[in-house]
Design brief:
The chain is α/β, with parallel strands linked by helices. It contains four helices and nine strands. It has one domain: Alpha/beta knot. The protein is 34% helix and 19% strand. The strands form two sheets. A seven-stranded parallel beta sheet has the order 3-2-1-6-4-7-5, with helices on both faces.
């Protein structure tokens, strides 16, 4: 198969992903916040694979909503329908997302390997928002310009010191739920 045919196939798949996104985005307007007050912020992630998987984890762990910064579409297929159930809030810039969350009483955390305290050793506030950056380039903003953001790290013991962003989001959601988990609005003992 020649390179031209491969490009045509890739374009066709991207067009199908956009169509899936439009259909599910219309249903997303009816999504209800999850039972937990945690929020996931996705900062300029690639539109292909990880965003849908993060929606799936957010739905499973009862996250309140997902904020998407600089993301105008993504393929919802890897989320197995979760985009219909978890409210999505779209922002053109991180600054508008930051102001919105701070004004609503959220404590923001960025996840970066080897920076900040271990999430497993940190007491997470009920109103926590976790910021995940682009898979290759990281966060799109200079953290020093946002003094109310705290760095956290996920303890890792291998050589690579890097996790896939959807895996990292799942770990964070698990830890938040471990600390604040509820069934029918009752606290679980941990």
């Amino acid at each position: 198969m020649g390179p031209h045919k491969v490009r045509l196939m890739m374009k066709a798949e991207r067009d199908r992903a956009r169509q899936r996104f439009r259909r599910q985005k219309n249903k997303n307007h009816l999504a209800q916040p999850g039972i937990h007050d945690c929020i996931i912020v996705l900062d300029h992630l690639k539109p292909s694979y990880n965003i849908g998987k993060i929606f799936r984890s957010a739905e499973a762990f009862g996250a309140r909503e997902i904020h998407l910064v600089g993301i105008d579409f993504f393929d919802p297929a890897p989320g197995m329908g979760a985009f219909k159930w978890v409210p999505a809030v779209f922002h053109s810039s991180f600054f508008s997302c930051y102001i919105h969350l701070i004004n609503n009483g959220y404590t923001l955390f960025i996840l970066e390997p080897g920076k900040g305290d271990a999430v497993t050793q940190t007491v997470l506030p009920l109103k926590s928002a976790f910021v995940f950056g682009h898979e290759e380039f990281g966060i799109s903003f200079e953290p020093d310009l946002f003094p109310r953001i705290t760095p956290l790290t996920i303890p890792q013991f291998g050589n690579s010191q890097s996790l896939n962003v959807s895996v990292a989001a799942s770990i964070i959601l698990y830890e938040y739920t471990r600390q604040h988990g509820r069934i029918d609005n009752k606290s679980l003992s941990t």
